[in-house]
């Protein structure tokens, strides 16, 4: 229920996306999320690599009182929970600058080889993740926002069009009554599909049709010219295809007539030879 409430509130963002000021920011956030997915794949690989390497040098956390000096029992269980708690969970807090007891465990054995090696790995990991990758992510977000800001008006018109079209095709009723409307619309589609299949082609003249109307007359004229040119090209291609089929049919008919004439002449020749005998 908590997840459902959160998703419902996030869904309410679509109602304010048509506002010019908010629209560009919401689109930029959506594009940033796509960039973030790529970043999460890279940082996930780096975190797992460091987690496996560090845990192979020193056992974190010391729930079994294991160290390289004193020895002890080692938890060798390999399941999702143990992998998460021992590898991913400790490394995850390094992103927030929280080291937990890891530095204390390393400082308690400053002369041990595993401690020195782990210090070097930790420094390299913090340098690569918290400095390089985080700044790379900030630069990606900044570039994405600048690209979106340059296309503010186009994005606003596009989002407004998509929202109007979405609610144009939706049911006029609210859930759960809208489910009955969807069933009615599905039955109507099946009825007209059967009519087109069994009887003569028929169209649903009462169906909703969403048509874009250009605000500028010059744009509407360009659309009309484009549709006319596309229709001409399509008709020209269809005529060429029909001519090709007709030529093939004529050549086949001529060949059939030639064969018929040859057969008729052969029969006449055989009759003449039979009469002479």
Helix and strand pattern: HHHHHHHH
In the residues, how many domains can be counted? Answer: 3
How many runs of DSSP E, i.e. beta strands?
0
pLDDT average, as an integer? 71
Structural class: mainly alpha
> What is the molecular shape?
elongated
> How many DSSP helices?
8
State which percent range the strand residues make up.
Answer: under 5%
Main sheet overview: none
What share of residues is helical? over 70%
Radius of gyration over all CA atoms, rounded: 37 Å
Q: pLDDT below 50 for ≥5 consecutive residues: which ranges?
A: 60-72
How far apart, in Å, are the first and last alpha carbons? 105 Å
List the helices and strands and how they pair.
Layout: H1 2-11, H2 20-57, H3 80-92, H4 102-107, H5 113-150, H6 152-168, H7 178-198, H8 217-276
Précis, in short:
The chain is mainly α and about 280 residues long.
Descriptive account of the structure:
With 277 residues, the protein is an all-alpha fold. It has three domains: 2-163, no CATH class; 169-212, no CATH class; 217-277. 73% of the residues lie in helices and 0% in strands. It is built from eight helices and no strands. The longest helix has 60 residues, at 217-276. It is elongated, with a radius of gyration of 37 Å. The protein starts with a helix and ends with a helix.
């Amino acid at each position: 229920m908590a997840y459902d409430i959160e998703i419902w509130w996030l869904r309410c963002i679509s109602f304010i996306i048509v506002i010019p000021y908010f629209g560009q920011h919401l689109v930029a956030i959506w594009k940033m999320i796509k960039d973030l997915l790529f970043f999460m794949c890279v940082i996930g690989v780096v975190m797992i690599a460091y987690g496996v390497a560090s845990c192979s040098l020193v056992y974190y956390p010391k729930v079994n009182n294991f160290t390289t000096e004193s020895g002890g029992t080692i938890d060798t269980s390999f399941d999702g929970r143990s992998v998460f708690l021992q590898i991913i969970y400790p490394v995850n807090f390094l992103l927030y600058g929280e080291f937990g007891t890891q530095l204390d465990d390393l400082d308690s054995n400053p002369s041990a080889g595993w401690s020195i090696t782990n210090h070097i790995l930790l420094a390299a990991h913090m340098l690569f993740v918290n400095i390089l990758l985080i700044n790379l992510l900030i630069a990606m977000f900044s570039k994405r926002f600048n690209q979106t800001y340059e296309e503010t008006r186009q994005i606003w018109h596009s989002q407004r069009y998509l929202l109007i079209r979405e609610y144009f095709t939706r049911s006029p009723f609210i859930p759960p009554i809208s489910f009955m409307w969807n069933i009615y619309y599905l039955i109507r589609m099946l009825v007209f599909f059967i009519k087109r299949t069994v009887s003569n082609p028929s169209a649903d003249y009462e169906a909703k049709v969403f048509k874009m109307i250009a605000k500028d007359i010059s744009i509407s004229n360009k659309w009309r010219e484009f549709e006319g040119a596309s229709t001409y090209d399509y008709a020209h291609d269809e005529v060429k295809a029909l001519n090709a089929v007709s030529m093939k049919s004529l050549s086949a008919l001529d060949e059939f007539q030639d064969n018929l004439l040859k057969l008729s002449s052969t029969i006449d020749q055989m009759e003449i030879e039979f009469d002479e005998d």
